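@channel anyone free to eyeball this complex?
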Amino acid sequence: MPPPRDEQGSSASQDDAALVARCRAGGDDAWAELVERYSRYVYAIAVQAYRLSEHDADDVFQETFVRVYDRLGTLRDDDAFRPWLAQLTRRLCLDRLRDNGRVEQLDEADAAAEAANELDRLDEALAVRDALGELTPNCREILDRFFACDESYRTIGAALDLPAGTIASRISRCLRTLRERLEGRKPAAVES
Amino acid sequence: MERHDEIHLAALLRALPPAPEGLVAAAAALPRTRRDLERIVVLAEEDAAFRAALLDDLESALRVAGVEPEPTVVQEIRRRFHP
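replying in thread with the prediction:
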């Protein structure tokens, strides 16, 4: 059994290798955390990099995590979890494109090359998301709701019990903090 | 990353919207789903009446066995027991 959540440290501070080790030890909580950490990434590879339909992307998403669950024990280097996951997802996307007749064998290299730029962008987005996890919960939630979930100022204000008129300035402050965090100009202390 | 101007950052934040909630929940529940599945398979192999009930009305038999008939479980049981 994994230790209680409050003894595990924050999600952001826990590196993949430690999380993978906990999953391998049979921790349901650790597995749920791994899925939560990478669910957006896997889905984005299917939808954005390979432009799968919603139905196909759903199938690839499910199959990816089933395979990860079944094959986690074969991962040789726990630090290499993310590239391993990305490769697994890419292969399943290509299989799906081939099954649908959207690519022939000879076109696979082209499809992979076309996806490469988008995959680089998603890796960069994942790094930003990791940095987001180091901000205050308030900043994290405001930025995620506004940019990733595409919520309006009014919706965000209602959800967080903040005046809608203050949301824009908070977004601006939080974004600046995130940028500074990524550039390493400033230590962890951030404004809410 | 070399350049973290805020427009670029905003674009990167937009690049990872949430995956569909149901998919994430099903993936997160995989360990439990697998345990349920294995329990059902063992029960069906050991108990002919339960196996017959599974073939007759899969979802009801799962409920009687205390397993919620989630799509992933139902699909896998069908694969294993329905030729």
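from a first look: The CA atoms of residues 4 and 10 of chain B lie 10 Å apart.
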